[in-house]
Write a structure and sequence with these properties.
Residues 1-18 form the signal peptide. It comes from Lymnaea stagnalis. InterPro entries: Cystatin_dom, Cystatin_sf. This is Cystatin domain-containing protein. With 173 residues, the protein is of the alpha+beta class. 30% of the residues lie in helices and 29% in strands. The chain has helices spanning 2-17, 36-48, 119-124, 139-155, and strands at residues 25-26, 58-69, 73-83, 86-96, 106-116, 132-133, 171-172. A five-stranded antiparallel beta sheet has the order 1-2-3-4-5, with helices on one face. Strands 6-7 form a two-stranded antiparallel ribbon. Strand 3 (73-83) and strand 4 form a beta hairpin. The two termini are 33 Å apart.
Length: 173
């Protein structure tokens, strides 16, 4: 019975988490790079690097795009850009305020923060320092599950015994 309640709570928490009013949301519709906000972010990267760049940076892909409603809409992008053989990943914030007009309607609110991308890592699709998929049968994962279950049971003073029934996703960092 307790397992059913815990499963229902986890399902409810996971589904509500994405619907937090005012919270940032993923925007896969902005990943194509043709949006005016992405272009504004790319312009900001070129303006920021104007001293060191005679050749403009060009967009390779939009790695991440989120938006949040805050007196308009705040967009946060991570863009992969290239200039000749150099490839960089840049984080840029763009703010859209539809009630304003002219240059104030769409502004960049955070200077680009760029770091060089290692091409061999980028081509393999590995997110260095980030999450990556893991196998549930991996001995390390099994030890982590056993550790989590043992500690949860100890914290609850063994009033309820937690037993892993199914695993939907496993990642490692």
């Amino acid at each position: 019975m307790m397992l059913l309640v815990l499963s229902c709570f986890a399902l409810a928490y996971g589904s509500v988490e994405a619907l937090v009013p005012g919270g940032p949301i993923d925007r896969p519709d902005l990943l194509n790079g043709t949006n005016i906000f992405v272009q504004k972010a790319l312009d900001a990267i070129n303006q920021y690097n104007v001293k060191s760049a005679d050749v403009p940076w060009t967009l390779v892909k939009v790695t991440s795009a989120t938006s949040q409603v805050v007196s308009g809409t705040s967009y946060k992008f991570i863009l992969e850009v290239t200039q000749g053989s150099k490839v960089e990943s840049c984080a840029v914030g763009v703010w859209s305020r539809s009630l304003l007009s002219g240059d104030e309607e769409i502004t960049v609110y955070s200077d680009p923060v760029c770091s060089q991308v290692n091409d061999t890592i980028g081509q393999r699709g590995v997110n260095v320092g980030g999450e990556s998929p893991a196998d549930v049968n991996d001995p390390e994962v099994q030890k982590a599950l056993a550790f989590a279950g043992k500690n949860y049971n100890a914290i609850s003073d063994y009033a309820f015994i937690l037993k892993v029934v199914s695993v939907s996703k496993v990642t490692k960092q």
